[in-house]
Amino acid sequence: MSPVDDNTSSIKPQIKKILAHLSKKPGVYQMLGKDGETLYVGKAKNLSNRVKSYFVKQHQSPKTELLVTYIEDIHTTVTETETEALLLENNLIKKYKPRFNVLFRDDKSYPFVFLSAGDFPRLAYHRGAKKEKGDYFGPFPSTSAVRQSLSLIQKTFQIRQCEDSYFANRSRPCLQYQIKRCTAPCVGYISKEEYAKDVENVKLFYQGKSEQVIKRLQKKMDVASQNLEFEIAARYRDQIKQMRHVMQQSVISGNASDMDVIGVAYASGVCCILLVFIRQGMIVGNKTYFPKVPKHSDLQEIVSTFLGFYYLSGAEIPKQVVIENLPEDLEALQEAFSQQRGSKVTLRQASRGQVKEWQTFANKNAEHSLRAKLNSKSNFTQRLLDLQKSLQMEQMPKHVECFDISHTQGKQTVASCVVFDENGPKKADYRIFNISGITGGDDYAAMQQALTRRYKRLRDEQQPLPDLVIVDGGKGQLAKAEEVFNELELKSIYLIGVSKGSDRKVGMEQIWFPGQHQPLLLEDDSKALHFIQHIRDEAHRFAITKHRHQRKKSATKSMLEEIPGVGAKRRQALLRHFGGWQEVEGASVKEIAGAPGISLSLAQKIYDYLHS
In Å, how far are 38, 447, 487 from 404, measured between CA atoms? Predict the structure, then answer.
């Protein structure tokens, strides 16, 4: 049962559409009121589950019940990790000061690690005004992360953490010295020079130059493992994990100046342009636009026109605008923006570092917003009418199913079945078929098995049959589907195949009909083609997702062994760097690239492989 099933009658129609197509990834959600006012900002490990929980009838607090009555719209921003979601949530709360975020109205800041000045500095947890002289490292994503890091550093470098008054009045070492958590500088057991070396190592660690610390722990872990001291090795492994957690740097905050980063996504005749606003080195929000795309429009032309319209219509113009593909009229736009702002404005591409991560962040959220837009569009009926006309069907297809096959080198083959009606995707009716008993890599046999299992059951149980079935593939796949339908005597179902054509380009899809040798080619602005692209892409996405889940569930060896381009040495480097493959799976692209021998491009491939 869906989390909103118990209370579905009272949910506003526009909210129902949003809830039906939420991402299951980590991110931040904004509850908006009637006039676009931000009522509440929250973070989630799983956006779909968390946002839907607000609309469950039981177990609502009075505050949540009141909040729900005001909600008119919900905006979501997808992040790679929970930490990024937490930091973005904090930025947005400070910016909008939502009235329902009562727990954050005290303006608490994130915690820091404080290293005091003097001959024998102390290391301590700090929150609040930075009045005392010394070095402040942070901010950190949570209080527990700071305290755990202090405990770890205390074990590694044995820097004192006691108050100055306690330190000044000691005549003999305390218990911290006995348990090897401190070198007892209070009684002169360590020289100022030696203590300074440990202090310098601590500074390097918190400045991100900590590979020497990690390598030391890795060596100890390897030695313990070789000596069969597995409990000790596990302790070092856990320390490496915690140290990686402490060192975690987020895409949400950085040191760059004010800029707007623009993400663009296009599919099925719809364009999404998403602006991410960077102010004082932090993401403070984003805004999404869906410009109307005229027939035969060039995507670069659309983006260029939008930039001119947006920034020359009164919007704030930052010093820098970052976009992945620079427009042809770059110089003209820069000059116009500079005149409007009154100072120089630069349009540029992101080459590396923090800005590159922000560009990736913008692109991913543009894709997410586009998918949500496609799934919630109100013109599905018009698309289906156009599909009826293009395929010369007697009636408009109100129930359409599409099939796709996914496997890895012929292993763990799965088939997906996605279902659309006049309102869009019906995700509750999606099905996955684990294929067995066929030759590895035989997509024809896999399709035949999936179709047989699906429609034999529907026929035998006298359940409603689809009006149209689409198989992802050309004449070969279509022929297998036709065989199945003939065997099951399913004469009423309209059947087509979809292939990408010789160039395999989007927009060049070929529509195949049973018994015909020439495919149908639709105009690239055809609503029927957009519908076919949408349902085909959704079937492919669902098949890939479930295939990956199947591999994870049944694998007896590390998922890392299946990633192309990651050999034994790189696997070992990743495992030693993170302490386990689950930690690799939970890391961001930047964190994966921090492992020895892993380039940024390979890190992106690893991340995509583990999360697609």
Answer: 41, 8, 21
Between the alpha carbon of residue 254 and those of residues 80, 189, 274, the distances in Å are 16, 40, 20
How do beta strands 27-32 and 520-521 pair? unpaired
Q: What is the DSSP letter of 435?
A: -
Question: Could you identify the residue written with the tokens 């080459």?
Answer: 351
Which amino acid, residue 331?
A: E
Q: Are 78 and 22 in contact (CB under 8 A)?
A: no
Show the CA angle centred on residue 407, arms to residues 493 and 371, nearest 5°.
65
The two tokens of residue 423 are 């309102």
Residue in the structure block whose two tokens are 């999360």: 611
How would you write 248-308 as a 3-class SS string?
CCCCCECCCCCEEEEEEEEECCEEEEEEEEEECCEEEEEEEECCCCCCCCCHHHHHHHHHH
pLDDT tens by residue, 149-201: 788 778 777 889 899 889 988 889 999 898 888 989 999 999 999 898 788 87
Query: DSSP class of residue 440?
Result: T
pTM of full prediction above 0.85:
no
Dump pLDDT digits (tens) for 423-465: 888 888 999 998 888 887 888 999 999 999 999 999 999 999 9
